[in-house]
Amino acid sequence: MQIFLDTANLEEIRVAARWGILSGVTTNPTLLARERGAGFEETIKEIAGLVDGPISAETVSEDADGMVAEGVEYAGWHSNVIVKAPSTPAGLEAVSRLREKGIRCNVTLVFNANQALFAALAGAFVVSPFLGRLDDISHDGMDLIREIAAVFEMNPEIETRILAASIRHPRHVVESALAGAHIATCPFNVLEQSMAHPLTDRGIRSFLADWESRKA
Ligand code: G3P
Questions:
Q1: CB count, 10 Å around CB of 23?
Q2: Is residue 190 within 8 Å of 167, Cβ to Cβ?
Q3: Which residue among the candidates 45, 84, 101, 215 is catalytic per the annotation?
Q4: CB of 26 closer than 6 angstroms to any ligand 1 atom
Q5: What is the pLDDT of residue 193?
Q6: Residue 87: its pLDDT value, please?
Q7: I want to staple 148 with a disulfide (CB 3.0 to 4.6 A). Which of 5, 116, 125, 142 is the partner?
Q8: Residue 187's pLDDT is what?
Q9: Is 57 exposed, middle or buried (0-12, 13-18, 19+ CB in 10 A)?
Q10: Residue closest by Cα to atom 8 of ligand 1
């Protein structure tokens, strides 16, 4: 299981990169809009300078020609750029055409296993099932990861990776690993929460107090 950061915030990326756990970054138009004043191309290039791994940059056209044109442009920014296209018929066509050009794609907004399978058949490098958004509407997002993993496993010709997205809390990370996801893309607060445990804090306080007591 690899950990990606789901953000366009450069400071969050710098911190997580220092921890030595970061294998890539995913962005989307919402995350980029939060970083007011930062240009899209400039931000993606800066991220690529901080993390040596796949960096997802999302298309915003609704037709295949537009997505392909955007994808070709994004891929020219850095060799680690992965073009994000939505799980729609136009997105499939764009992924198929971009793959022919040697450009890797992340099919996003995946909410059922059919979408994941079709994305894989079109040549997606990764598919992004959205766990949290399914949980939000009272569906079990983890069931979707399990189903996609089972379908991919039964079809060994599929090389597409499963990227668990819309992660809301640390249990989503470990459960998606157990369910067969290859990557979890996490908001920064989930990375912080993942390392927080009251027994760790209590243990540190107790060790430090005992260490000090030996001087008394
Ligand atoms: O970047 C895709 C996905 O991770 C977004 O998650 O929290 O907006 O549902 P969220």
A1: 15
A2: yes
A3: 84
A4: yes
A5: 97
A6: 98
A7: 116
A8: 98
A9: buried
A10: 166
Residue type, 56: S
Angle at which helix 113-122 crosses helix 141-154, to 10 degrees, equals: 40
Question: Which protein residue has the closest C-alpha to ligand 1 atom 6?
Answer: 166
Residues of the chain with pLDDT under 50: none
Structure tokens at 73: 């442009």
Task: For residue 34, count other CB atoms closer than 10 A to its CB.
Answer: 11
Query: Does residue 133 have its Cβ closer than 6 Å to ligand 1?
Result: yes
The model scores a pTM over 0.90: yes
* CA–CA dist 43, 56 (Å, integer): 12
- pLDDT of the residue at 28: 96
Burial class (CB in 10 A: 0-12, 13-18, 19+), 100: exposed
- 84 among known catalytic residues: yes
Residue 111 CA, ligand 1 centroid: distance in Å: 12
Nearest-atom index, ligand 1, CA of 28: 1
The reported pLDDT for the residue numbered 216 is 78
Which residues lie below 8 Å from residue 3, measured CB to CB, with a gap of 6+? 21, 22, 23, 173, 183, 184, 185, 186, 191
Residue in the structure block whose two tokens are 């996801």: 181
Question: What's at 177, amino acid-wise?
Answer: A
